[in-house]
């Protein structure tokens, strides 16, 4: 009985860890400071053809799309042609 109890505790702990480990951030900012309001564009970590913008302080960021045939390049904070786009590490 003790082994079943310990195995159940271990499985529940593993399930809790897996659930918290799979939470993924899409890069959407909180828009909760003037610094973030002054940083014009934020990279969308799920979709390279989109980016986030803070429009109003303490309001959710708004997702914007790049024009067709372009992708958002975080280092230049702009949409660029796919030929000029390359993966950049998340900072």
From TrEMBL:
Residues 1-20 form the signal peptide. One of its GO terms (molecular function) is chitin binding. InterPro entries: Chitin-bd_dom_sf. Keywords: Signal. This is Chitin-binding type-2 domain-containing protein.
């Amino acid at each position: 009985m003790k082994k079943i109890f310990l195995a159940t505790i271990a499985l529940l702990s593993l399930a809790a860890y897996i659930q918290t480990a799979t939470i993924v951030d899409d890069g959407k900012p909180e828009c909760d400071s003037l610094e973030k309001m002054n940083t014009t564009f934020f990279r969308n970590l799920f979709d390279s053809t989109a980016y986030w913008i803070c429009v109003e302080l303490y309001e959710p960021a708004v997702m914007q799309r790049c024009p067709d045939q372009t992708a958002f390049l975080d280092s230049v904070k702009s949409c660029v042609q796919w030929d000029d786009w390359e993966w950049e590490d998340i900072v």
